[in-house]
Amino acid sequence: MIHLSDGEWKIMNLLWQQAPRTITQLTAALEQETDWSKHTVITMLNRMEKKGAVRHEEGERAKLFYPQAEREKVAAQETKGFLEKVYAGSLSLMVNSMVSQNRVSREELGELYAILKEAEEGSR
Hints:
The protein is mostly helical. The chain has two domains: about 5-65, Arc Repressor Mutant, subunit A (Orthogonal Bundle); about 70-120, no CATH class. Helix content is about 65%, strand content about 10%. It has a two-stranded antiparallel ribbon.
């Protein structure tokens, strides 16, 4: 299981959008949002490689970084952990909390109904 910090999510999202990327490209893409130095990005990439989240290949001039972990798998793991930690595993409690805190559009309600209908049909 791969657990990502908030900063690591920022890097992974960039790599999932477009890979490969070099350290320089990642640093430039994150510069306005994070103000991280090149050394910070290198440290994070090294940590993420040890976790199995990213991998690199030697390029002509610089290392090329690729996502090693699939977005869907990592997101599912993080969601499950969040649900357990914050809502004691109760999906209905989480949905109730989200709906009561945020205005839900008709489009979102339609999507939620479709998801619930699909889940209901799948559990038969």
